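User: Predict the structure for this protein chain, please.
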Amino acid sequence: MVRMLKMSVTCLGAVLSGCLLSGCGGAPAGAGGTSVVAAFYPFAYVADRVAGAHASVTNLTSTGAEPHDLELAPQQVAELAQADVVIYEPGFQPAVDDAVEENAEGTVVEVTDVAGAIAPEDEHVADTHGHDHTDLAGDPHLWQNPVKLAAVAREVAGALARADRDHAAGYRRNAGRLSRDLRALDREYARGLADCERRTVVTSHAAFGHLADRYGLQMVPIAGVSPDAEPSPGRLAELQRLVTQRGVTTVFTETLASPALARTLADEVGVRTAVLDPIEGLSDATADEDYFSLMRSNLRALRRANGCS
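Assistant: Here is the predicted structure, written as structure tokens:
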């Protein structure tokens, strides 16, 4: 869903004054052409692909930072306020929610509404496993389903086309190419996870519900949606029993959160650990990667852990 918001002049003035007093540098996001501000990596990647050479893209979450914990600097609020297009996910980053509500002047793309409106025939791949679909209420990690990210790409292209009509055809072509790449990735996942010895995936936190739902897996998280949540001793004991009973071979850690709990669980039951990247952001180790390379790395890790042929 796309909506237009009126900027609070008083708030923006305070932000810009604060920036000048603190000596922060950098041109405003909209200087010299069409500008996009994305809240964190997956949507910045989409914006880059769709914008091509015709618009500048700013990612509010820097490499190595945990997106959930983002606090905005005055300059970032000013960039968001002046951007032609803002892409964010309500509820994922409270600081961004507040800044959008109070300051955004351009077109705002709310990705949750966009991805929630994809065609029913695109919602699930063929389900030959008889699994119960995952309850995705409260799970913001929609980019783990490539088809949902393709819907975001199309909406971003529409927003950019309205902001910059001279390059509208180029934005739509770029979104079309990205959508085709995402559908090809979706087919890779469907084939790669079709025939597996196990379908249970134990993860650090509940970041893979959209992936599990799409491809017939069962995600069992140690923590909840927030990677900082601490499981109870009873929950850890329950997980130890589940890993043993289902023959789980791997407990998955991730890149931007501590691996301590996952490693403790794996050591207790004598299984290995491996990385499953939630792709919420890039780390120092993955700074040269992109969404597609990380998703394919995840697919290889899942196939190995679950004995897929």
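The longest strand covers residues 34-38.
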